[in-house]
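thought: fold this chain, then report.
action: predict
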Amino acid sequence: MCEKDNISECSLCGAETYRSKLIDGICNKCVTGENKQCTKCGEYFNKNKLSSDSLCTKCSIKLHKRLRASEVNEIVECVECGREVLVNDLNDKGLCIYCHCEGLESEIKKLKYKKRACY
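observation:
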């Protein structure tokens, strides 16, 4: 029996797994509730990657951009850490100043390392 014949996709999240591991076409992560549905787009994600409003990162960023464009300075969650901040205090990727600074700090370290490697 060919291995490809035994592999199937979960009907909810689309993850590939063995047919024997699927329960009525649904993977174990979806059955146990580890994967949840985004309330806006309907796609399935790990529940730890969803906001408290059950929005995926992509939908959260779209919401943040709409709020910023409408000049409503509402309290929202940072996409990365979940910290509550005003929407105007987030960058374009939905990151608060703390997460944004951590990202910049790691990039500076990488550039310094590359610079040392060149000498």
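thought: worth noting. The helical segments are 3-6, 28-32, 57-69, 97-118.
final: tokens above.
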